Amino acid sequence: MPNPLIRKLEAFGPLPDADKALLDEVARTAKEVEARTDLALEGEAPYKIHLVMDGFACRYKALANGSHHIVAYLLPGDFCDLHAFLQKRLDHSVATLSLCRVVELSRSRFEELTERPAILKGLWWSTLVDEGTLREWLVNIGGRPADQRISHLLCELLTRLETVGMTVGHGFQLPLTQADLGATVGLSNVHVNRIIQQLRADELITLKGRNLVILDRRRLEALAEYDPNYLHLEGGGAAGVQPRA
Amino acid sequence: MPNPLIRKLEAFGPLPDADKALLDEVARTAKEVEARTDLALEGEAPYKIHLVMDGFACRYKALANGSHHIVAYLLPGDFCDLHAFLQKRLDHSVATLSLCRVVELSRSRFEELTERPAILKGLWWSTLVDEGTLREWLVNIGGRPADQRISHLLCELLTRLETVGMTVGHGFQLPLTQADLGATVGLSNVHVNRIIQQLRADELITLKGRNLVILDRRRLEALAEYDPNYLHLEGGGAAGVQPRA
DNA sequence: CGGCAACTTGACAATGCTCAACGCGGGTGG
DNA sequence: CCACCCGCGTTGAGCATTGTCAAGTTGCCG
C-alpha cells in the first residue's frame, strides 16, 4: 500500500502530481503511536490535526456514567479531527486502538494543503463520507436488533479495510475487545459475546484472538441488511464544489 | 427573524455586505411547501440543493422492514443536502414536517455561493455542526435509556429553535407525532407515549396538540445529561480554513 | 508459574416491544 | 347538521430482547 492519504483523496477525483508530492512529503512525517493511546481529548482546545497513516484508531465520547461510546473508526488515510481548527473545543476524543503510524499537522501545514483546490475538494468529500457513515450507524443502532447491528459493523469494516489493503481474503485483524464492539453498537459486552457465539454457530464468522474471518459474506450481508452505498466508494460522479481555481 | 441563512452562516464569522446581499437574493426565491412532502428521495441522482427558510423538515432513511429512521431535523437556515452535488446518489431522503418555505438551489447558483470564501467557510462550519450533532445523537441512542433520550432531544430542539426565534418562553410548536419521536430516538410509539406521560407527571413538560412547553428546563437538562457544546453555538474561535481569498 | 485481562456461561431482572382495544378530535360526505 | 372515519394518543397485558451480577475459564505476558 503506497500512500493511503493519496488513495483516499483520489477517491473523489485525480490529484495533480504536485499535490501528490506534497502529500508524500506530509506522509513521511508520520510517527509511531502505541495502541490504546489518546491523541486528542474532548474539551481540549485543538492545536494539531491528526491523520492515520497505518493502524486502527477511533473517535469516542464519554458518558456521564463513566462509560464511553465509540462514534467512528479511523483507518489509514482518515483524518481524525479535520474540523479541529474550526472549533474552540473538541466535542469528542480520539485514540489509537492498534499500533499506528500517525501524522500530526500543524495549522500552517494544514493550510498549505487546503490551498490546493483538488485537495480541498477531497477533504470535503471525506467529511461527507464521514457524515454518511454516521447516519448509517444511527440507523443501525436505532433501528436494528443486536445480531444485525454487529453483523453490519463487521460488513462495514470488511469493506473499508479492503479499500486500504488490510484484509486477507475475507479476514482481517480486529484490534477490538468485545466490550469495544459493544461500546460501538450500544450493547453490553455480555450480549455482544452471545451474539458472536451465535454468528459462529451459524458458520457466518470465525473470531479467535484478534483474528476475524467472514466465512459467508453473502449471508452475513443479507442478515445485516448491508448496502455499502453510504460509503460512496465509487467517488463523486457529479462535478462538485469549485473553490477559486 | 430576518434572513435565517445569514444568521446561520454568520455564526462562524462575519460576512461581507456583498455576500449578504447575494444571500438575501437567494432567500427571496423561497417557495412554500406543504407539510409532509418529500423534497428528495434516497437513491435519486441529485439535481438541486434544498434549503429551509421557514418551518420544520427532516432527513430520514428507510429500513428494510418498511419503517424509517429520522437522522436529522432541519430548521430555518439549514441545508438539507449540501453534499448532494458531490454524490452520485443520495444516501437519505428529505421531507418537510410542517408547512415550510424552501429554497431550491441549482448547481450554478450553488457554485456562485461557494465562490465567496466567507460563505464557503460558513458552509464548512455548518457541515461540521451537523456532524457533531450526529455524533451526539449516536451517543444518545446508543448509550442512554428512553427517558433520557427523549428529554435530550427536547432540550436540543429548544436550544436550536431559540436560535432561530421559534420559541415562546420555553415552549414551541412541535410538528411531530409521537411515532416520529420514536423514529428519531429508536423507540416504539407506545413507549414514547409512556415516557411522555412520565415527563408530564414529573412536571417537566406539557404537551398538548402540537404545543410543547418545558416547565423546568434545569431539571430536564439534568435528566438528559444535556450539554449543548456539540452544537458549537459560540462560533469558531480559531481561524479556520483559508480558501484562496 | 502467577496474574491479569478478556472471554464465557448461567440465572435473574429490567427495559422496551407487540398486539389489541378504546377514546378523542378534526375533517368529510351525505 | 349530523354521522362517519381515520389518524393520533392512551392504556393494558404478555412477551422478547437485552442488561446486570456473579462466577468461572482461557490465554497471554512477564
Task: Report what the structure shows.
The structure is a homodimer of 245-residue chains. Chain A has 245 residues and is α+β, with helices and mostly antiparallel strands. Chain A has eight helices and eleven strands. The first copy, chain A, has a four-stranded antiparallel sheet with strand order 2-6-4-5. A four-stranded antiparallel sheet of chain A has the order 8-9-11-10. In chain A, a hairpin with a 5-residue loop joins strand 4 (57-62) and strand 5 (68-74). In chain A, helix 5 crosses helix 7, helix 5 (146-163) crosses helix 8 (217-224) and helix 6 (178-185) packs across helix 7. The longest helix of chain A is centred in the middle third of the chain and has 27 residues, at 117-143. The radius of gyration of chain A is 18 Å and the shape is globular. The two termini of chain A are 30 Å apart. Mean pLDDT of chain A is 93; it is low at 237-245. Chains A and B meet through strand 5, helix 3 and helix 4 of A and strand 5, helix 3 and helix 4 of B. The structure holds a DNA duplex (30 and 30 nucleotides).
Question: Keyphrases for this structure?
Answer:
4-stranded antiparallel beta sheet; homodimer; alpha+beta; 245 residues; DNA-binding; 20% strand; 11 strands
Q: Characterize the overall form of chain A.
A: globular
Uncertain segments of chain A of ≥5 residues (pLDDT<50)? Answer: 237-245
**Which percent range describes the beta-strand content of chain A?**
15-25%
> How many strand units of chain A?
11
> C-alpha Rg of chain A, in Å?
18 Å
- Oligomer status: homodimer
| Major beta-sheet overview of chain A | 4 strands, antiparallel
Distance between the termini of chain A: 30 Å
